[in-house]
Design a protein that fits this description.
By secondary structure, this protein is α/β, with parallel strands linked by helices. Helix 7 runs parallel beside helix 17 and helix 7 packs across helix 20. The strands form 6 sheets. It has a 5-stranded parallel β-sheet. Strands 1-2-4-3 form a 4-stranded mixed β-sheet. A 3-stranded parallel β-sheet has the order 5-8-9. A hairpin with a 5-residue loop joins strand 12 and strand 13. The termini are far apart. The longest helix has 19 residues.
């Protein structure tokens, strides 16, 4: 007897349909799984056998063959436990499926209860695209599956509950669509930061246009404090952006039943000991997303930038330009989204006090060696450089509160609204992502602006890439100012953010 059960699989961060073909035939009792299964899939044989017996059902005394089609794609993980069990019971006549529009996903315990699985959102999206009308998933994963929409999601607690439902004895109610609740708590606020008005202005510009930014200053000046408050002034995630970011986090098992959807922009701050694989993604047998993909539609914060290994920093170059990273291995290649804001913090030298009186203990050679870890192509991809000097006693002792994040965020959202109206739904999401066509259409300079840009180009030795990035920043400053065109004042401010004085060597 043969039974075919629909299921889902994962390839990178994308789901695809898998069909579990379960055949019970005469011969010596055996249980074989074919279709390029990995070790976790092969171990499903023991989990399925124990779950069937512990739920009070007889295990078929037959030669059992399960084919996971398409057979030419490697199957990984534990998501095929439930479809295998359902297929075996259906092929043995112990239950009847509720139609060809149903799909099953889930990991089994030996007792027959279902455990949550990683990557539920991309699999649910693939199920919707494949025309699935009823999706049976572990109860803890049901909230995430409802985010796909367009089908009924049934939260399954155990094999016994599923069998009772399919037999019509005790129906399972479909899960209600998940609705975001209240935020977990107050986020870090710019009102906590004393002084550093110029750095706050640079961060506001970066947030308004989605630009990359680097902050340079001595230890204790507030660079990390400022960076960790950047998400509080970024605009809210759109539905599309939230689903894209959540898909990456879901595959890595970072979602939960309580928080299945990212409602705030990701903020990733890896330690400087991270490897290039941890940053860009990779691994075997199937590549997995790295930190730059986990920061998709959010912020990647690199504290103590020169302390990162050079190979780790160099893998950022392509994603910063294209918004994607492609990981190629012998077993195949995967493409992961990586559209993020790069925020860096660094000291001007190893001891951190170069340029600030006599406290620096570094020789010129030491300073050059320290900053030499940063390649020119990487620095060229950073739009704004902000000096973060040490605060004096008077600034620290002042009691008046600084401007709160809510006020800054209102200006940022107003600028983003201007950009959304300018580019339309099919254009760039912000000024930082403008291409040549948008630059030509929205960043034209008058004669005075051309003169300013020519002087900066010759004086600072700008590249074609830095020229375009200055125009993008100037466009953002003009949007914050409510100006239709880029003025000389907007361009001059953009130029002054172009490069830190400590990096001109």
């Amino acid at each position: 007897m043969l039974c075919e059960v629909r299921s889902l699989g994962l390839s990178g961060i994308a789901g695809y349909e898998v069909k579990a073909e379960c055949d019970l035939s005469a011969g010596l009792p055996a249980f074989e799984v074919v279709g390029l299964p990995d070790a976790a899939v092969k171990e499903a044989r023991d989990r399925v056998r124990a779950a069937i017996r512990n739920c009070g059902f007889p295990f078929p005394v037959s030669r059992i063959t399960v084919n996971l089609a398409p057979a030419d794609r490697r199957k990984v993980g534990t998501v095929y436990d439930l479809p295998m069990l359902v297929g075996i019971l259906a092929a043995g006549g112990q239950l009847r499926l509720d139609g060809p529009d149903s799909a099953f996903v889930g990991e089994l315990s030996l007792s027959g209860t279902l455990r949550p699985v990683a990557g539920m959102l991309p699999m649910a999206l693939a199920a919707r695209e494949a025309g699935v009308k009823r999706l049976y998933v572990p109860a803890p994963s049901a909230a995430e599956a409802t985010l796909a929409g367009g089908m009924e999601v049934y939260p399954v607690e155990s094999v016994a509950a599923l069998v009772a439902h399919l037999r019509g004895e005790e129906p399972i109610a479909p899960a209600a669509p998940w609705i975001p609740g209240a935020d977990a708590g107050p986020a870090p606020d710019f009102a906590d930061v004393k002084g550093q008005e110029s750095a706050k202005r640079a961060l506001e510009i970066a947030a308004a246009g989605g630009h990359n930014i680097a902050m340079v200053g001595p230890p204790g000046s507030g660079k990390s404090m400022l960076a960790r408050r950047l998400p509080s002034i970024l605009p809210e995630l759109s539905r599309r952006e939230a689903l894209e970011a959540t898909a990456v986090h879901s595959v890595m098992g970072l979602t939960s039943a309580e928080r299945p959807l990212l409602v705030q922009r990701p903020f990733r701050a890896p330690h400087h000991t991270i490897s290039s694989t941890g940053m860009a993604g990779g691994g075997t047998p199937v590549p997995r997303p790295g930190e730059i993909s986990l920061a998709h539609n959010g912020v990647l914060f690199l504290d103590e930038l020169p302390e990162f290994h050079k190979d780790v920093l160099e893998v950022l170059r392509q994603p910063l330009e294209e918004g994607w990273v492609t990981i190629s291995r012998s077993a195949g290649s995967e493409r992961f989204p990586a559209r993020f804001m790069l925020v860096c913090a660094m000291n001007p030298c190893k001891c951190g006090w170069y340029g600030y009186g006599s406290r620096c203990r570094c020789s010129p050679r030491d300073v050059e060696k320290y900053l030499g870890k940063l390649s020119g192509p990487l620095l060229d991809r950073i739009d704004l450089y902000a000096e973060v000097p040490p605060l004096d006693f008077d600034e620290l002792s002042r009691r008046p509160a600084a401007e709160p994040s809510a006020v800054i965020r209102a200006r940022v959202e107003a600028a983003r609204a201007v950009q959304a109206a300018r580019f339309g739904p099919d254009g760039p999401s912000c000024n930082a992502h403008m291409g040549p066509a948008e630059l030509a259409a929205y960043c034209a300079l008058d004669a005075d602006g051309q003169a300013v840009m020519k002087g900066a180009f010759q004086r600072m030795g700008l590249t074609a890439r830095s020229y375009d990035r200055i125009l993008r920043v100037a466009r953002t400053i003009a949007d914050l100012d409510g100006a239709a065109d880029i003025g000389v004042e907007h361009l001059a401010e953009a130029v002054q953010y172009r490069e830190s004085a400590y990096l001109r060597r």
